[in-house]
Design brief:
Number of strands of chain A: 13
Number of domains of chain A: 2
Radius of gyration of chain A: 22 Å
CATH topology of the largest domain in chain A: D-Maltodextrin-Binding Protein, domain 2
Strand content of chain B: under 5%
Distance between the termini of chain B: 62 Å
Shape of chain A: globular
Strand order of the largest sheet of chain A: 2-1-3-12-4-13
Largest sheet of chain A: 6 strands, mixed
Radius of gyration of chain B: 25 Å
CATH architecture of the largest domain in chain A: 3-Layer(aba) Sandwich
Number of helices of chain A: 14
Strand order of the largest sheet of chain B: 1-2
Number of helices of chain B: 28
Oligomer: heterodimer
Structural class of chain B: mainly alpha
Distance between the termini of chain A: 37 Å
Structural class of chain A: alpha/beta
Number of strands of chain B: 2
Number of domains of chain B: 2
Order of helices and strands of chain A: HEHEHEHEEHEHEHEHEEEHHEHHEHH
CATH class of the largest domain in chain A: Alpha Beta
Chain lengths: 368, 675
């Protein structure tokens, strides 16, 4: 069997080399791959029902139009083990002809950063072609929001808060850590299946603090705010080019957590706790969703996909059609995507150690 | 009044939108596609909607809605074919239909059962839509009254249906339900992610078992194997009795049952978080409780078909409320539906709290498109039912390989893992033994379905309530004992008391003779062993984690039950009902083929798949089965194999699905569909 394999590998290698040479000559000026008549599989490591599915279903038809040869782009769902199953699968794939791409999310990044034993993938091996950012907004019932002293959250420190939590190691660790830093006593009710369920719990009056990512906030919470049933508390903010946290462009009137923290004496915007929070915020939100080509992808393929996503962004109607579904956030390609990937998949050992220890102490979750 | 004044013009607009020829055309197209997909068990609306998604981008909203709603609406209608004709629960919506629908088919009354089911579906869909037209205006505040304790109480009410379906030995039914719940808790706990009965070294089980696999395994495989052993057609009568008109007449004679079950369907469907998985059981329980002569249930009582079928289409309508008004999908297909709506047009329809205010006409269009799709779908189904019912007169050996193929494919779609097939086989084997020893499989399935909500809601209610109690005793009591909870509590207690009194008459598994002591005792001991191990396994989770509480509680109740059963087995003579064993007497005992050789065929497909991949395995399986087990001619076997393969590949290609790879594919890269 092994001789057979070697022969095969040599043969494919030769063929690949020949094709590559041929392609180089054919596209000497253009550098690109032609996908005419092919089917691009876009693997999403979640079920058909989540936010990543929405995101991929939004991009898939646009990508299909923008890629050379207009291939069919099919979104393939491979849920399991909190998205690590699909990511592990993608790790095992080698680059073939550029018809396989992968969409990862914050929930794929966090287990990677925290050293979850199920993770067998390495972001360093993958080639990013698009990074989509998002933001998050925390909100309160009106009577509790009224107790806040401007941006100072100190008067809320005596309240008993209930929060519907999707899981201690999920994106929810960003809000729960933020609230803890403000000195709020928030009890997490576990076993929520999505942030929509958390919002429902808030609407039923069982939870009295909640957060949603931007697009869900726009569609699900804004009507509640208008009806006087909810008041925004703070956003997680957005990153400027220098890496500072600034107001979220989608919600310029809502203060950021950083501002609230500065106004609250119990909270500090420095020290290991703040650094850890910021590191995981960056990993979870400004580069929440990314599209990758597998290990060993040719430069031509990366260039082709980058150009395609740039063409999508350049559509005249892009701002209009993306605004509602993705929010006003950067859709990064090329250098910017590389930078986003680097910041989303690297946290300092101190920040990691702090969070691992915090999860163990607060929730009894052991990540070994 | 003001609300209604606003609603009427919107309702008029909605009808103006719907009644355009092109919209109706798209609706019919959606219905036909939905019927084609829904007929095959285990695929359901998710597969169909995913197929439509690429076309939704920028499509005219009303056309896109017509197409999608048409498809979603008829899946619970067409899955009735598999439930009634083959005893295979096509989706979670038609599990209860199997109990009486399939025995009717065996009696040669398939067409009658089908048309009664379809008439009920149609009526349920219409009642649902009418009810919703008014209710949707006032639904929001009512739905918000259903907090965690109320949801927990509904779950417990659903579980109380086990009382009715427990079978002749009530404790056995309770242990069966408990076993289902324990199997439902396998995997990562929802609270802190602690593992139950699984490990990260063997990742398959950490996600838990899927309903598709458990439903197909527990119901379909035992029935297929049993029929195959007897080597006859599904219908015992060569001449099919009862045309489709009889079924419609049956439905009309029970119209009030149909009304009540439709209302049950809408109301339970409206409550977010439970989905539709309990509705049909509650409706079935209601049908049983309101029937004077209960002796026919489980043996082909038409009321047992009318009840659940009236509720499951009404439920789809009810499920629109959480989906459209809260943006919270009631089921997997509704989740895709929400995603797809965002793609329509320029994305102007925003599902969620603002839906009623901004898009009332669209909301009404969806409600009535659903009703209309039901009408169209039902008419097509009734028209087809007479012909399709003839399937029950074909020799079963010709159908079985096809069914094995479909079931394996459907099971594989749930996790895209070869282990899906192993799990299907394992659960099928358990189902086979439960059927043999007269352990209630419906009770097991109810336990499995409700394990997750029961555990989550119980943990959450306890946690929230204790926070309320810290604030004040009265606040805590108010939270737990709301009026809705008290009403549900009374209904549940009544239903359990009545149910247990009646359970002896209702043989969910049919009449089973008793025989020797050894085999039933061994089975009981194995079950007890598993439960004891599950207890030990949960107990070894650290004590601060909530993930241990529920499995430990369920396992302890079951262990007490098992102890009672073991004592009873020791004391009673071997003629006691507790020793029921199908291999002793009746159809199975006199079957032409043995249990093990028949099971070996299916095991062979599994082993071949693990070696050669699904498609190559199918080639060998279909051909050898036809040639040697069914004993048909070489030519026929070849044609059958080719047709089966063409069908399988065509469907997978259309739905863009893969097949399970085997060992061979590790070494050699093969082109699709051999991969």
């Amino acid at each position: 069997m092994s001789t057979f394999k070697t022969t095969r590998r040599v043969a494919t290698g030769l063929v690949a080399a020949a094709t590559a040479t041929f392609a180089m000559q054919a596209n000497a000026g253009g550098h690109g791959i032609d996908l005419a008549g092919k089917t691009v599989e876009w693997i999403i490591p979640f079920s058909e029902t989540g936010g990543s599915a929405k995101w991929a279903n939004f991009y898939a038809p646009l990508l299909s139009e923008a890629l050379p040869g207009e291939p069919t782009v099919v979104v393939k769902f491979m849920p399991g083990a909190g998205s690590t199953k699909g990511a592990n699968f993608f790790q095992e794939q080698s680059y073939d002809d550029g018809t396989l791409i992968f969409g990862s999310s914050g929930s794929t990044q966090f287990p990677f950063l925290l050293g979850d034993p199920r993770v067998k993938y390495d972001y360093a091996d993958w080639n990013v072609v698009l990074a989509s950012g998002t933001g998050g907004v925390a909100y309160l019932p009106p009577e509790l929001a009224a107790k806040m002293d401007g941006m100072d959250a100190t008067p809320l420190q005596g309240e008993d808060f209930i929060y519907g939590n999707q899981g201690a190691t999920r994106l929810d660790l960003v809000p729960t850590l933020a609230w803890e830093m403000l000195g709020l006593n928030v009890e997490s009710v576990m076993g929520i299946k999505g942030r929509g369920d958390g919002r429902l719990m808030f609407e039923r009056g069982e939870a009295n603090i909640d957060y949603q990512t931007s697009s869900s906030y726009l569609s699900g919470v804004t009507p509640l705010v208008e009806a006087g049933a909810a008041v925004p508390m703070m956003t997680w903010g957005a990153l400027d080019d220098a890496g500072n946290i600034v107001r979220d462009p989608t919600f310029p009137d809502i203060p950021t957590f950083k501002e609230v923290c500065e106004a609250t004496p119990a909270c500090e915007t420095s020290g290991e706790k703040w650094d850890a929070w910021k590191a995981f915020f960056i990993a979870g939100f400004p580069a929440q969703k990314m599209v990758f080509l597998p290990n060993g992808a040719s430069n031509d393929a990366i260039v082709t996909y980058t150009a395609a996503f740039e063409a999508v962004k350049a559509r005249a109607d892009f701002a209009e059609i993306s605004g509602k579904r993705l929010g006003k956030y950067p859709q990064m390609t090329g250098e910017a995507a590389e930078t986003a990937k680097a910041s989303a998949t690297n946290v300092s050992p101190e920040a990691k150690a702090f969070i691992v220890n915090w999860l163990q102490e607060k929730y009894g979750v052991s990540l070994n | 009044m003001e609300v209604i004044m606003e609603a009427l013009p919107a309702l008029g607009d909605a009808w103006a939108l719907i009644l355009q020829p092109v919209v109706l055309g798209y609706l019919v197209l959606g219905v036909v596609m939905g019927l084609c997909i829904g007929v095959f068990p285990g695929l359901g609306g998710i597969a169909g909607l995913s197929l439509l998604l690429p076309f939704m981008f920028g499509m005219d909203p009303i056309l896109g809605l017509a197409l999608m709603v048409g498809m979603v609406a008829v899946v619970p209608t067409s899955d009735t074919f598999a439930s009634v004709l083959m005893g295979i629960p096509g989706s979670s919506a038609s599990q209860a239909t199997v109990l009486d629908g399939f025995p009717m088919s065996k009696k040669g009354l398939a067409a009658r059962a089908l048309s009664a089911a379809f008439a009920s579906s149609l009526f349920g869909g219409l009642v649902g839509a009418t009810f919703l037209t008014v209710f949707i205006l006032i639904a929001r505040p009512i739905v918000l009254e259903f907090r965690t304790p109320e949801l927990l109480m509904i779950t417990i009410f659903g579980l109380s249906m086990v009382g009715i379906l427990a079978g002749r030995v009530a404790i056995k039914g309770i242990v069966a339900a408990g076993l289902g719940m324990l199997i439902g808790t396998i995997g990562e706990g929802a609270s802190s992610g602690d593992l139950r009965m699984s490990s990260y070294d063997f990742p398959y089980l950490t996600d838990g078992l899927k309903l598709v696999i458990v439903g197909l395994g527990i119901f379909a495989i035992p029935e297929i194997i049993s029929l195959l052993r007897q080597d006859r057609a599904i219908s015992r009568e060569a001449q099919l009795g009862g045309g489709w008109l009889d079924g419609v007449r049956d439905w009309f004679a029970n119209i009030w049952l149909s009304v009540r079950c439709s209302i049950i369907g809408v109301v339970v469907g409206v409550i977010p978080g439970l989905g539709g998985s309990v509705v049909d059981w509650i409706a079935y329980g209601h049908a049983v409780q309101t029937t004077k002569d209960k002796s026919n249930f489980g043996k082909g009582e038409v009321r047992g078909v009318i009840g659940p079928e009236s509720s499951n289409n009404a439920k789809e309508g009810g499920g629109l409320v959480p989906t459209l008004l809260f943006g919270i999908p009631g089921s997997g297909s509704m989740a895709i539906f929400i995603g797809a709506i965002a793609l329509l047009g320029s994305g102007q329809i925003e599902v969620g709290p603002a839906m009623l205010k901004n898009n009332l006409d669209i909301t009404y269009s969806i409600v009535w498109l659903l009703a209309l799709a039901n009408v169209v779908g039902t008419i097509i189904c009734i028209a087809a039912s007479g012909g399709i019912a003839k399937l029950t007169t074909i020799r079963f050996a010709l159908l079985a390989p096809f069914l094995f193929m479909i079931i394996s494919f459907a099971a594989f779609q749930s996790g895209q893992n070869l282990m899906d097939l192993v799990a299907l086989f394992a659960i099928g084997f358990l189902g086979l033994l439960m059927r043999r020893f007269d352990w209630s499989r419906p009770a097991f399935l109810i336990g499995f379905v409700l394990a997750t909500p029961a555990e989550n809601y119980a943990n959450q209610a306890v946690q929230i309530a204790s926070s309320r109690f810290r604030r004040g005793f009265e606040e805590g009591i108010d939270y737990i004992f709301s009026p809705i909870v008290i009403v549900l509590l009374i209904i549940t207690v009544l239903s359990v008391v009545l149910g247990l009194r009646q359970a002896k008459n209702i043989m969910a598994e049919g009449d089973v003779q008793s025989g020797s002591k050894r085999a039933p005792l061994v089975f009981l001991l194995v079950i007890t062993g598993y439960i004891a191990y599950a207890f030990y396994d949960a107990a070894s989770i650290p004590s601060y984690s909530r993930d241990r509480v529920f499995p430990m509680f369920v396992a302890s109740v079951c262990l007490v039950g098992c102890a009672f059963l073991i004592i009873r087995m020791m004391l009673k003579p071997e003629t006691d009902t507790i020793f029921a064993d199908r291999e002793r007497n009746g159809e199975d005992a006199n079957a032409k083929h043995g249990l093990w050789p028949t099971l070996a065929w299916f095991a062979g497909l599994l082993i071949l798949t693990s070696l050669l991949g699904f498609i190559l395995a199918l080639v060998i399986f279909l051909f050898t089965f036809m040639r040697f087990r069914a004993g048909v001619s070489l030519v026929f076997a070849t044609i059958y194999t080719v047709a089966g393969l063409a069908f399988m590949c065509g469907m997978a290609w259309l739905l863009n699905r893969d097949f399970p790879p085997g060992l061979l594919q590790e070494y050699v890269d093969l082109p699709w569909p051999l991969t």
